[in-house]
């Protein structure tokens, strides 16, 4: 992709900038899409939030650099040095390893997020970092990446570490990133897109959707998970769904 004789530092700078640009495009495409759907289906929901949304976009753009730089460097080292356990050959491992790797990455991300998120709610860290995310009251589709840069750093390091430990096909890494993007946006957009029967089903008992994460933004001291309710259930921090969203869904 880049000339083999290019100085390493220059190559790393270029891949970091290009990857950050991709992360920014992904943010605008995903948050923009769900903000547009929100506007179409719930006109006026974000009507008085122009200043809040501007701030969310500013923090998110800084986050795109923090997420993009290590991801770009990892990709470059895989491509040029053969480091990491990323692979592109479909026959490198048995096919059942494909879904297993996705599940392991999502569980690892969820576990890392749950414990760092709980730590972020300690007063000192909340004041210095995590308060930025909770300045969105209530959150919107643009809140998904709205974090203080130091908090973004805690989120950005995990996958670059995992790719050195757990083998994953490039396409499956794409699946993990797609799930992360869509759930990050939809869990913040202020309304529940899944039907009531699913949210209140055994699957909804273990999966996090907007109704669950909204309650975290309402009450702060509960519902710390990212994708799954496993750690919240295990540690007694699960308080169920946002009463506002449950009432809205029932009325609909
Ligand atoms: Zn949130
Ligand atoms: Zn929080």
Explain what this protein looks like in three dimensions:
The protein is an all-alpha fold. The protein folds into two domains: 184 residues, no CATH class; 61 residues, no CATH class. It contains twelve helices and two strands. The radius of gyration is 19 Å and the shape is globular. The mean pLDDT is 93. The site of one zinc ion (ZN) has 6 residues, from helix 4.
| Number of beta strands | 2
Low-confidence stretches: none
Question: How far is the N terminus from the C terminus?
Answer: 52 Å
Average residue pLDDT: 93
Question: Main β-sheet: number of strands, strand sense, barrel status?
Answer: 2 strands, parallel
Question: What share of the residues does DSSP label as strand, in percent?
Answer: under 5%
Structural class, please?
A: mainly alpha
Tertiary shape: globular
Radius of gyration: 19 Å
Order of strands side by side in the largest beta sheet?
Answer: 1-2
Write a brief caption for the model.
The protein is built from twelve helices and two strands, in the order ααβααααβαααααα. With 252 residues, it is mostly helical.
Name a few traits of the molecule.
252 residues; mainly alpha; 2 domains; two-stranded parallel sheet; 12 helices; binds zinc ion
Topology:
Layout: H1 8-41, H2 50-81, E1 86-87, H3 97-120, H4 123-134, H5 149-156, H6 158-162, E2 168-169, H7 170-186, H8 196-199, H9 202-206, H10 210-219, H11 230-235, H12 243-251
Parallel strand pairs: 1-2
Helix pairs in contact: 1-2, 1-7, 2-5, 3-7
This protein binds zinc ion (ZN) (2 copies).
């Amino acid at each position: 992709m880049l000339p083999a004789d290019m100085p390493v530092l220059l190559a790393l700078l270029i891949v970091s900038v290009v990857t950050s640009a991709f992360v920014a495009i992904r943010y605008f495409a995903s948050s923009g899409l769900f903000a547009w759907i929100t506007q179409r289906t719930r006109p006026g929901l974000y009507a008085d939030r122009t200043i809040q949304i501007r701030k969310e976009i500013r923090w998110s753009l800084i986050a795109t650099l923090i997420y993009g730089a290590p991801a770009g460097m990892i990709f470059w080292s895989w491509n040029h040095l053969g480091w990491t356990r990323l692979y592109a050959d479909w026959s490198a491992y048995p096919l059942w390893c494909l879904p297993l790797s996705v599940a392991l990455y999502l569980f690892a991300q969820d576990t890392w997020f749950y414990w760092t998120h709980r730590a972020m709610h300690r007063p000192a860290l909340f004041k210095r970092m995590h308060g930025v995310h909770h300045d969105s009251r209530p959150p919107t589709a643009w809140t998904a990446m709205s974090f203080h840069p130091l908090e973004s750093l805690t989120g950005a390091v995990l996958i670059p570490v995992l790719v050195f430990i757990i083998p994953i096909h490039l396409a499956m890494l794409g699946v993990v990133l797609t799930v992360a993007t869509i759930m990050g946006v939809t869990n913040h957009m202020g309304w529940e897109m899944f039907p009531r029967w699913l949210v209140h089903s055994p699957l909804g008992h273990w999966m996090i959707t907007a109704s669950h994460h909204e309650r975290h933004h309402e009450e702060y001291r509960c519902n710390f998970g990212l994708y799954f309710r496993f750690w919240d259930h295990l540690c007694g921090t699960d308080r169920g769904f946002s009463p506002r969203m449950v009432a809205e869904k029932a009325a609909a």
